[in-house]
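General statements about sequence and structure are easier to judge against a single worked case. When preparing material for the folding task, we compiled for one chain both its residues and its backbone structure tokens. The amino acid sequence and the backbone structure tokens for this protein are reproduced below:
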Amino acid sequence: MVFRKAFLPALAAACLVLAPSAPALAQQHTLDLYDGPAPGSQDWSEPLVVHPTEGGEDRYNTTQPRLQVFLPEPDKADGAAIVMLPGGGLRVLGMGADMHDTIAMLNDEGIAVIVLEYRTLQRTPEEIAEATAPRPPRSGPIVFPSMEIRNANANPSPDDPVLGEVLRLAVGDGQAALRLVRSRAAQWRIDPERVGMFGTSAGGGVAFGAMMADEEGATPDFIVSNFGPALQDIAVPQDAPPLFLITEAWHGPVTDGLIALFQMWIAQREPAELHVYDVPNFTMTPDLWGPRLIDWMKERELLGRTPE
């Protein structure tokens, strides 16, 4: 699987760079996910590297997870909330203009958005420089390698113990974020029974991992996946969350993995909706799928729910 972050601009490695200001969004603040060092990564030593991008930033070597909280204006707050999981192949967190466009759209509909900066692979300055070096112009579209999908598992490196550990910790971060968001329900005007996850690329794998962990208070009530397939074997849970799945037609194992998830859900008569776009250079902006996502949330009574 080739993740979207393969096209990052060059990075002056080994230095911490301050990111530019993000687009203005309602009531933003940040807080640490854990009190004290994050459990399991206390010995990680590579420093955080923040690389400015157009309209946002890329974050490498996340060791201490934190939350960025974007609450809608009080008169718009609906009670629905989304824990947003950026993508980057578990190697980087891509938090660009497209993510901020999506947050603005969701906030405008009264949805609280909490961006989780979950832990990612430790990378040396040399590795970051290599990963972000300018690529030679390509003469044609990227061809993604084929992969056999079993149990909807589209993990491109299933036998890599280091990435496996990173995934385990990232899933733990996702669970902790769900618990924290629900604990702040009254303060943030959130309905604790309408807290979902929105995963992009590897962030989708983190969301499905939290679902499969099946721990009380740490399971998403719904999942939105933007070309983010499962990175582990999946079985349809007894109380399966509704799925809203987005991908492009030619994204190889990502597309195949999301199709497999959709087929598993509908085979069990569980709610799922899949959108596959035949659009070259598909981007993550919500122009194509945003209006339908909002309608879907209303139809599933995840948004605009009539008070009981």
